[in-house]
Specification:
The chain contains ten helices and seven strands. The protein is α/β, with parallel strands linked by helices. It has a seven-stranded mixed β-sheet, sandwiched between helices.
Amino acid sequence: MNILQRNNVRISGNGSQAIIFAHGYGCDQVMWRKVSPAFDENFKVILFDYVGAGQSDLDAYDPDRYSSLSGYAQDIIELCDALDLHHVILVGHSVSSMICLLAASKMPQRIERLVMICPSPRYLNDPPNYVGGFEPADIEGLLDIISRNQPGWANYLAGVVAKNPDQPALAQELEASFCAMDPPIAKRFAEATFLADNRADLDNFDKPCLLLQCQHDSVAPLEVGEYLSKHLSQSTLVQMKATGHCPHMSHPEETTELIKQFLENSN
C-alpha cells in the first residue's frame, strides 16, 4: 500500500528536518494553511489526512483499527517509516496531541520534540482529582446526536470549538468540515476521542513538549493544561492570548510565533 497516497501526504519546504502537522477531530490538513507555510524556509513540512478524513483513501478505512487513538497513531508511525524520517517535530492539534504522543512513544528513535495545541489526555471529568471539561451525559448526548442528526451535531460542536464570535467564518468552516465526514466514521472517531483516557501515557514520556493552551477553551480547560504540565517531565506550558480551541485557525500569528520560539529555544 502506498502510505503517501493513502494519507494524502503533501511535502513542501527547503529544510532537512521534518515537521509534521497532525489535524484534530473532524478536520483535515487544510486547517494548517495559515501556519504551516511559515516553516517552509527552514523545515521539511509534511501535511497529511488521517484515514477517514479529508482526501485520504476511504477504502483503507478499517473500523477495528480506528476504534482507538492507537490506530490513528499508527498512521503517523507508518508515514515516518515510509519516508524514513528522523529528528521529527510533531505538531498535533487537540486529540492529535495525544495521538502524536502515542506515536512518539512507539518510535522514540524517530521523534525529537512535540508541540501540543489545546491538548487533553482525558475529556471526561474524573472527580475529585481531575477536571476534563465534560460530564458523561455531555459525551453520551454528543454521540447520540451524531448518530441521529449530522447537521445538528456539526453545528453544535462547531460552536463549542470555535468560541470566537468575531470570526463567524471559523465556526462555519468547522461545521462544514464536520458535516463532510462519513457519519459512521465521525461517530467512531468521536468515541475514540472523547472516551479515551491517556493519563497513564504521560508519566514516562521524556521528549520536550510545548503545551499551547487557549483562553476560554471549553474543550480543554485551564485545569487540563496544568495537569499535563505536572505530568510531562519535559513540558513547557504557555497560556495563549488566543481564545477557543483552534488557535492555528483563529490566531495563526501567535500560534506560529510560539512554535518558532520553542523550536529555537529547545535546540
